[in-house]
Every structure is written in C-alpha cells, then in structure tokens.
Inverse folding.
C-alpha cells in the first residue's frame, strides 16, 4: 500500500503521458484548409498548461513532440530497428512476431499494431502478460522520456536484448494510445500531420500566451533566428522563460564554439549573365565550388569539433583534421570556420572526386590507418577570439581568415577566388575550376549585403555548376524514393523504375515529382533492390501525396538521391508544388531525370522542398522568356 501511495505522490502534478497522447490524437484528426492554425492553437493550449504547472517538464514534452531526445548535434540516435519493436510488441501482446507483422501490414504501421493488439487483449492474456502491472499505473512524460534516453544509452554486445527488455517494460505500462505514440516516436513519425515547423509555431504561440502581453514581439521569427545560430531548443526554451524583452533572446542564444550554426546556402544560377544581373553595381567574388563535404570547424579551450551541413557531429570521422587544428591553432582563443572537406591525392597534389571521400570510414577512425587523405578548403569565418563575425562583410571575414590561418599544401587552403567583373575572366575561371576537379563556382557579394546568413538559401551567394553548361536545369534536386515498379528484361528481379518525391515542409508531406529509371549501374540496381527490402510498406503513407500513381511496391522515406533533370513541366500526374500552383490539382514533374548520387549527408525531410522546386520552375520560365529576375522570395 505504501508503495502505491508513494507512486501516486510521485506523479501528482507531473505531466501525464496520456495527456500528450490524447493531444496527438486530436491533432491527427484536424484536417482542412486552416488546419495548421487550428493545430497551433490546440497544441499551444497544452504547452502553456505544462509551462505554468510543470515548467521543468516542458522541454521533454516539447522534444518528444518533435521526435528528438536532444539537439541534432549530440548523437542520441535510438538505434532500434523493426526487429526489436516487433519482438517487444509480441511480448506485450501475446501475439507471435508473424502475427504482429501481419497486423502491421493490414493497419499500416507498428504504432497502430500495438494500439490494436493492446486494446483487444483478452483478459486472460492481459493477466499473464502484465500481471505485475497495476491498473492504476499512470505513465508520466518524464518517465517515457527518461526510458527513451536509457534505451539510447545501450550499446555494445547484448544491447539489442537489453533494448528489447526496456522497451517491453515501457510498453507494458502504456495504455494502447500511449504505446502507439511511443512506437511512432521510435519510428520517427507521429503521423499527426504536424512536424517540427508546426510544433515550433505552437511553441511561439504558447510563450506569447505565457508572457501575457508583458513581452511583446514576433515570437515565431525570434525563435527561428535563435535556432539558426543556436539549434538547441533547451537553451532557447530556458531563455524564453527568463526574459523581460524578446531582444534578450539573440543576446543569449548566439553563435558559440561547440554548437553548430546552420550553414548559409546558395541560389542556383544558369549563366554568367544572370550573375551580372543579380550583382549589378555590387562588388563580388567568385570562388571554386569544391566537391566534398561541408565541414564547420569549431575550436575552443583545446576542444575541436567538426559539424556537417546538417549539423551532425563528424568529429570522430576526421581525427586527422582534429589533430591538425590542435597542432597549429592552439594559440587562438576560439574560432568557427566554414570549409569544404575534400579528398586529396598527396602524391600528385590534386583534388580527388567526392566518391573517394565517401568511401572513407565514418566510425572509429584511427588516424594511423587513414588511407584517404583530406584537404580543408576554407572559405568563411564565423567566429574568432570570443567575437561573432556573422554581421561583418565578407571582405572583412575573408581578410581576417587570411590573416589568422596559414595555407599548407594538401592540408589547409583558402578557397581559390577571383574578384573580377569581367565576363571572359569569370568564364575562364569557371572552366579552370572544372579542370581542377571542382563542381563550378560560388559567387558571393563582398561588401553590400554580404553578412553571413545562417540557414538561409540566399541570393547573396550564387552557385554556377558545370552542369549548367549543358542545357539542363540550373541545379540538381535531392529527392526521396517512395515507391518502385518491378523491372523487365535485363532488370528482371530488381526494380526497373522508382517514384521520387520532394518534401513539402509546410504540409509535412512528400509530393511526387517523377519516375526514374536512368542512371543506375547494374551494381546499383541490385544494391538498391536489396536495400529497400527492409523498408517495404504495404500502402503509401498518409503523408505521401501520390493519388493516381500506381506502383508495385512502396517504401518508408529513408534515403535521398541527387537527381539531374532536363526540364520541369506542369503535370497532371505528379503532385509536387500543387498547393503552391493552385492549378486544379496539377503539379510539376521533372523530365528526363537521371540519378547522380546518393546524398548521404541529407535526411528525407531535408530533401528538396516544394518551394525550391517551384522557384526553379519559375526561374526556368523567366529564363525561357528572356526576362529579368523575380524578387527575392525568402
Ligand atoms: P549542392 O548539391 O550544390 O551541394 P547544397 O544544397 O548542399 O547543394 P548549396 O547551397 O547548393 O548546398 O551549395 C553550397 C555547397 O557547396 C556548400 O554547402 C558547400 O558544401 C559547397 N562548397 C564548395 N565550395 C564552396 C565555397 N567556396 N563556398 C561555399 N560553399 C562551397
């Protein structure tokens, strides 16, 4: 009796997980035109209650809602595959693993499978499988979050069994709908039509209500800006609780070594003329566009960290770079530089292709065993000696970069640049960049509008790739394969074509863009076929906008492919950009798509956005009619 009393006391006042699960359930039912606003208000209502009554539990509740256990740059991947989930569901429900998989196939996902099997357990079954669990057990948000963290910490031999044991314990205590969302969290999709962007809007709304008009301002954009320099929700949420004015947020949540800043990105251009049009009367520079992996290098207090384009911590992958920075730049009082990590042939002093870099090991890299050497091509300075350089002009950043760092062949080089406004010179420079093994040029404003804009795909950075010299589109697209058709003839036994989708961030939906059957080597045909066997799903997901497209098989969104295409056209079949176009449900489709490579550095929700595809479509139309540019749109 005393045990259950203390349990009740423990949960008194705590956020109950059932409240979160019921919220997700209600959110999932909201459909229609203004659904995003309705969802925002509904979610904000529960958020504000938690903020007022259980402030210290708010961060876990928020993070769970956006499918995170911590910031992206801290490795917190759960590493739980379908096999473990199926075993746990089987143990909890008394069903065989085969029955669980069948249930998943009928219902569409493992979340629904556990919900259904828990709610239809016979009482006898319930007695055997959960006799140790008392009816009155109420899961708290903290309990669920802590258990997920515990799951994440399991590694090494025997960790699979331990994960299964911990997960089974948690699912036993959960009510059917709670179990559904725990499983969906592990499967990285709550399936409620509200992803991070919507939750972020609800967070802003909740804080606005929390401060009851005492702190005025645009919460949504302040949170957005803070996330660019400091992508750590805990820090931002703690700050938002403590402020008297919104101005304090950027003062407290700013760029700092050890925390990656979202990188600035470039807009694609189709010709050198377009660059002149864009940068008329502005000073600009052209740099080689190296073909490697973006590396944001941080150093402070003897600690070096390296972050990827999407903020993943790659420090373990490059002990050679870590060592180089330690040896040469100990004297600096902290810095953050932006660079491209490029595979390098030391014997012949030349750049090696991107594919060589990806064949280098990623985990547990021992510096003495490294066979593929890399050279750092540095092109920007974000922070130096306790000072942010983001607001400085590129001219100043570049000058300080050159004064602070020293070039060494095959180790560290400044991106080759040319400050020229002469058409022929730029053309020659572009051809040289390609000869040197680069992708083309990056063209950047030097003075006016030249500050570093974190997270922004900016018109102040333009890219001109060598592919533009063919008659193709001005950029490649990064798309997600979501389905396939079986091949015939030589391709029998594999998939002959794949259906590709872009990602609509506002709707949290994957929108179809084309079918692709070109660009696959025989080796890839087989490799991709095997790869997808683990990700087959019986029906398209509800977030796939794919009406009218028939495929033999469907996949979960797990991988991103870089695609080159000749043209974009309005299409009655594909759904990409249909919400932006508003043309009787028509979308845009890519013509003559061809596979370039697998984008290992992007996650499916970082695929080309519908907005980006639409921008390229629009730009293409502008170029076709020989007109000038449209206004900046972001
Ligand atoms: P892409 O497929 O072209 O790499 P992306 O979306 O990853 O597309 P973009 O903004 O289109 O990024 O192009 C900029 C990328 O080019 C940077 O992320 C960086 O990795 C690489 N890069 C190579 N050289 C430079 C340079 N001199 N300045 C800036 N970025 C460079």
């Amino acid at each position: 009796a005393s045990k259950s009393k203390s349990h009740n006391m423990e949960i008194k006042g705590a956020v109950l997980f059932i409240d979160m699960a019921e919220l997700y359930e209600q959110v999932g039912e909201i459909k229609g035109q203004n659904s995003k606003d309705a969802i925002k208000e509904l979610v904000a209502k529960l958020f504000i209650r938690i903020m007022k009554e259980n402030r210290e539990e708010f961060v876990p509740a928020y993070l769970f809602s956006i499918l995170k256990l911590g910031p992206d740059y801290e490795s917190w991947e759960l590493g739980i595959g379908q096999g473990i989930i199926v075993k746990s569901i089987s143990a909890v429900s008394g069903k065989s693993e085969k029955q669980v998989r069948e249930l998943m196939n009928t219902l569409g996902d493992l979340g629904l499978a556990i919900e259904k099997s828990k709610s239809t357990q016979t009482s006898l079954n319930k007695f055997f499988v959960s006799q140790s669990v008392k009816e009155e057990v109420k899961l708290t948000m903290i309990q669920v979050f802590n258990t997920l963290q515990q799951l994440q910490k399991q590694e090494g031999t025997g960790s699979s069994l331990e994960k299964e044991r911990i997960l089974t314990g948690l699912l036993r205590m959960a009510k059917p709908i709670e179990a559904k969302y725990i499983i969906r969290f592990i499967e990285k999709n709550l399936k409620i039509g509200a992803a991070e962007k919507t939750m972020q809007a609800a967070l802003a709304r909740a804080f606005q209500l929390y401060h009851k008009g005492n702190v005025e301002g645009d919460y949504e954009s302040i949170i957005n800006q803070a996330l660019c320099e400091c992508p750590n929700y805990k820090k931002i949420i703690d700050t938002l609780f403590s402020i008297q004015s919104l101005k304090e947020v950027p003062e407290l949540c700013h760029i700092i070594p050890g925390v990656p800043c979202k990188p600035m990105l470039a807009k694609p251009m189709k010709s050198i003329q377009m660059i002149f049009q864009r940068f008329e009367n502005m000073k600009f520079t052209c740099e080689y566009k190296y073909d490697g992996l973006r590396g944001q290098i941080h150093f402070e207090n003897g600690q070096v960290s390296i972050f990827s384009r999407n903020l993943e911590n790659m420090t373990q992958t490059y002990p050679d770079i870590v060592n180089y920075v330690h040896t040469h730049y100990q004297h600096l009082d902290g810095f953050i530089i932006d660079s491209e990590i490029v595979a390098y042939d030391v014997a012949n002093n030349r750049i090696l292709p991107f594919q060589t870099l990806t064949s280098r090991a990623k985990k547990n890299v021992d510096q003495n065993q490294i066979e593929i050497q890399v050279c750092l091509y540095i092109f920007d300075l974000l922070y130096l000696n306790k000072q942010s350089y983001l607001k400085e002009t590129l001219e100043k950043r570049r000058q300080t970069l050159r004064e602070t760092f020293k070039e060494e062949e095959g180790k560290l080089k400044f991106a080759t640049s040319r400050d020229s406004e002469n058409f022929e010179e730029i053309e020659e420079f572009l051809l040289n960049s390609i000869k040197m093994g680069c992708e083309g040029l990056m063209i950047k404003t030097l003075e006016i509008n030249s500050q570093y804009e974190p997270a922004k795909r900016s018109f102040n950075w333009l890219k001109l790739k060598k592919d533009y010299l063919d008659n193709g589109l001005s950029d490649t697209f990064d798309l997600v394969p979501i389905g396939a058709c079986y091949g015939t003839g030589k391709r029998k036994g594999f998939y002959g074509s794949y259906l590709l989708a872009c990602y609509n961030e506002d709707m949290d939906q994957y929108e179809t863009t084309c079918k692709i059957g070109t660009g696959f080597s025989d080796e890839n045909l087989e490799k991709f076929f095997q790869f997808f066997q683990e990700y087959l799903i019986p029906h398209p997901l509800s977030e796939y906008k794919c009406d009218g497209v028939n495929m033999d098989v469907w996949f979960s969104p797990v991988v991103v492919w870089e695609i080159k295409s000749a043209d974009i056209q309005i299409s009655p079949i594909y759904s990409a950009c249909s919400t932006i176009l508003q043309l009787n449900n028509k979308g845009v489709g890519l013509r003559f798509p061809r596979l370039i490579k697998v984008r290992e550095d992007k996650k499916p929700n970082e695929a080309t956005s519908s907005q980006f595809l639409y921008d390229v479509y629009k730009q293409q139309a502008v170029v076709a009619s020989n007109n000038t540019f449209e206004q900046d749109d972001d």
Summary: Residues 90 and 99 are 8 Å apart (CA to CA). Residues 1-11, 623-634 have pLDDT under 50 and may be disordered. Residues 263, 265-266, 287, 289-290, 294, 309, 340, 379, 415, 442, 463, 476 surround adenosine-5'-triphosphate (CB under 6 Å). The two ends are 61 Å apart (CA to CA).
